[in-house]
Design a protein that fits this description.
By secondary structure, the chain is α+β, with helices and mostly antiparallel strands. It has ten helices and 20 strands. It has a six-stranded antiparallel barrel with strand order 2-10-13-12-11-14. Strands 1, 15, 16, 17 and 20 form a five-stranded antiparallel β-sheet that branches.
Length: 591
């Protein structure tokens, strides 16, 4: 037990001794470090200088050709690279002439789609042929139906003229408003409307029609203005009761029509019946004189009296027949054939409208078939083009570089078996006659960079070579790729044209550019690290003997190393390149 206690005491004493030794060593170390720093800081000063001052922006960049041929995948979706020419291969003019294949993309899926599309194309082609045939059939059927209705109108008119005579027919039809002029206008309007519809369907333009019978041509505008009145007239004429047809039952008015012949027959029957009555009366008077003288018998007298009565009854029947014809049969027949004529006109007009409707339906079917055929033909043509685009051939001589500079880090490495998307750059063939540097300038400096500024360029692979260039273009928007990788960092692509031609320059080389923003003459300047921000004010620490004074300054332009001092310092004054310790007691001076 006693041994255990002694062992614990020895361990405790050992730990205490080690801690004191470590504390003493750390104290000595920090004291020496602080002393050395103080000795060093005491000598880190910079005299304020006056002279010419170049304001430059230093950025990194990469060499590339100003103009390049970018060969992109034009195949929709994604497809694999079956074969590709080696990177670094130089495409010769002979390769361009022979159409050398640079890239072969997988076309198997497209070839399978082409077979299916060919079947769809053939079906659409058959449907289009059928629709065109049906359209022509409907056009011919319309012509037949319309011609039949035209003949029906013509024959109905002839029936009226046949029955009433031409003059009476014209007078009656004009009185009820369906004379030949009005009907022809309405018929011509519907005909022109139909032909215009057909012309629009066939040619996209309205065709002009003229009357085949050398009738007066009426413009569509005039016809449209009168169409409503003509239609109302036709409707009202069907039920019109304003015409008294009985007054036309006159031989002087009917001409040589059937009604004239019928009226003449009834008139002749009346005249003959009247003559028969007169003869029967004369004979009866003679028989009565003979009967009084007893030359004839009573029977002979009664027979002649009966004959007279028969002749009188026949006269009354003839007058009744004539009266019934004039009163009923003639107006009935006249109105019936006129109504048949108006109905024929209506049927003709309706047929014009029906023809337009049927043809429009046929045209719609034909248009649909044409559209479907055009779609299938376009798909077929696009598939053929897509298959052709799977073979990418040489079109320009130059050095083969895989991919593009902008998305080189955003895509899978270009090689056989790699899948590429539509519009992705597969190969770039740069034009090395004019080279440029693509640099990315931070947003804090971009407003200082202008087109035409001079630039010093140093290529990392050839540090002994000094190149010059000119700012050619500054991007309007931040670099999208960098913005995606680091949203808080905004940099703008700046393109610098390299002066002269240098055979040793290769695309992709790393370079450093120093853009000359401005040249200041006879100005004061100090190192960047000698200016500090204290309470939102820029200050420098000026050494005066053993004292240090904090002085407020006004700064101007700056570059990577120095900054212009506009106010607050004098030439030759020494400024500290560090922030002095808290032991320094001084107040700011605003000299």
């Amino acid at each position: 037990m006693l041994n255990n206690v002694n062992n614990k005491r020895k361990k405790y004493l050992s730990v205490v001794i080690l801690l004191w030794v470590a504390f003493i060593l750390l104290y000595i170390f920090f004291k020496n470090v602080i002393f050395v720093n103080n000795q060093t800081n005491a000598n880190i000063v910079f005299p304020v200088k006056r002279g010419n001052f170049e304001v430059t922006i230093l950025e990194g960049g990469s060499i590339e050709a100003k103009e390049s041929l970018q060969i992109k995948s034009e195949v929709q979706g994604e497809t694999k690279i079956l074969s590709i020419v080696e990177e670094g291969y130089y495409v010769t003019p002979e390769d361009v002439q022979k159409g050398k294949i640079l890239v072969e993309l997988d076309a198997k899926k497209l070839l399978d789609q082409q077979i299916e599309q060919e079947l769809s194309f053939q079906r659409a082609k058959a449907s289009l042929a059928n629709a065109e045939e049906q359209y022509e059939i409907q056009k011919n059927q319309n012509e037949i139906d319309i011609r039949q209705n035209e003949l029906a109108v013509k024959f109905a008119r002839m029936d009226i003229e046949k029955y009433l005579g031409i003059d009476t027919t014209n007078e009656i039809l004009k009185k009820i408003g369906v004379d030949n002029e009005n009907v022809q206008k309405l018929v011509l309007l519907e005909k022109q409307n139909r032909m215009n519809e057909e012309g629009t369907n066939n040619n996209g333009e309205k065709e002009k029609e003229s009357d085949n019978n050398n009738e007066e041509t009426v413009t569509n505008t005039e016809l449209e203005e009168n169409k409503g009145d003509l239609t109302k007239t036709l409707i009202s004429s069907i039920t019109s009761e304003s015409i008294d047809f009985r007054k036309y039952a006159d031989s002087a008015l009917l001409g040589d029509g059937v009604a004239q012949q019928t009226l003449q027959k009834y008139t002749t029957d009346v005249i003959l019946a009247e003559e028969d009555v007169k003869l029967a009366q004369k004979k009866l008077e003679g028989t009565r004189r003979l009967y009084e003288k007893a030359f004839v018998t009573q029977t002979d007298l009664e027979t002649d009296e009966l004959t007279l009565k028969r002749r009188q009854v026949a006269l009354e029947q003839a007058n009744t027949n004539k009266s019934l014809f004039i009163q009923y049969e003639f107006p009935k027949q006249a109105e019936r054939i006129i109504a048949e004529y108006i109905e024929a006109v209506w049927k003709y007009i309706r047929m014009q409208k029906v023809a337009v409707s049927r043809l429009a339906q046929s045209e719609a079917n034909l248009s649909s078939a044409k559209s479907q055929f055009a779609i299938e033909a376009r798909k077929k043509r696009e598939l053929e083009e897509q298959i052709q685009k799977c073979m990418i051939r040489a079109t320009k001589p130059g050095l083969v570089v895989y991919g593009g500079e902008e998305d080189r880090f955003m895509q899978e490495r270009i090689q056989e078996g790699t899948s590429v998307r539509e519009r992705q750059i597969i190969i770039t063939i740069p034009d090395t006659s004019v080279m440029q540097v693509r640099s990315r300038v931070h947003e804090s400096n971009i407003k200082r960079v202008k087109q035409g500024q001079k630039v010093k360029i140093r290529v990392d692979a050839f540090p002994e070579e000094s190149l010059t260039g000119t700012v050619d273009k500054v991007a309007v928007l931040p670099n999208a790729q960098n913005r995606w990788l680091n949203p808080d960092l905004k940099v703008y692509d700046t393109f610098i044209i390299i002066d002269g031609t240098h055979s040793w320059l290769k695309p992709g080389m790393t370079a450093q550019v120093e853009i000359l923003v401005a040249e200041l003459n006879d100005v004061l300047f100090v190192p960047m690290q000698s200016v500090f921000n204290v309470d939102n004010q820029q200050v420098c620490y000026v050494q005066k003997g053993n004292e240090i004074e904090m002085r407020i300054v006004k700064t101007g332009e700056f570059n990577e190393s120095f900054i212009e001092i506009k106010e607050g310092l004098k030439e030759g004054e020494k400024v500290l390149l560090y922030t002095p310790g808290q032991t320094i007691q001084s107040r700011p001076s605003e000299k």
